[in-house]
Amino acid sequence: MTKTIIECNDVNFRYEHSTVLENISLDVKEGEFWALIGPNGSGKSTLINIILGLLKADKGTVKLFGQNVDSFKQRERIGYVSQKSNSFNSGFPATVLEVVKSGLTRKVGLFKGFSKHDEQKALDSLRIVKMEDFASKNIGELSGGQQQRVFIARALVGEPDLLIMDEPTVGIDQKNVASFYSMLNELNGEHGIAILLVTHEIDLVTELATHVACLNRSIHFHGMQSDYKKMNDTDISLWYGHPVRRVHQEQKGI
Amino acid sequence: MISALFTYEFLQNAFLSGLIIGVIAPLLGLFIVVRRLALIADALSHVALAGIAGSLFLSQSVLMFSALNPVYLGMASAVGGSLLIEKLRGAYKHFEELAIPIILSTGIGFGAIFISLAKGFGSDLVGYLFGSVSAVSRQDLWVVVIIAVVVVAFIRFFYKEMFALSFDKEYAKVSGINGKFIQIVFMIIVALVIGASMRIVGILLVSSLMTIPVAAAMQLAKSFKGALVYSIVIGELSVLIGLFSAFHLDIAPGGTIVITSIIILLLVLGWTKMKGKQPSKKAKEEFA
Ligand SMILES: Nc1ncnc2c1ncn2[C@@H]1O[C@H](COP(=O)(O)OP(=O)(O)OP(=O)(O)O)[C@@H](O)[C@H]1O
Ligand SMILES: [Mg+2]
Question: For B2-287, CATH number?
Answer without folding.
Answer: 1.10.3470.10
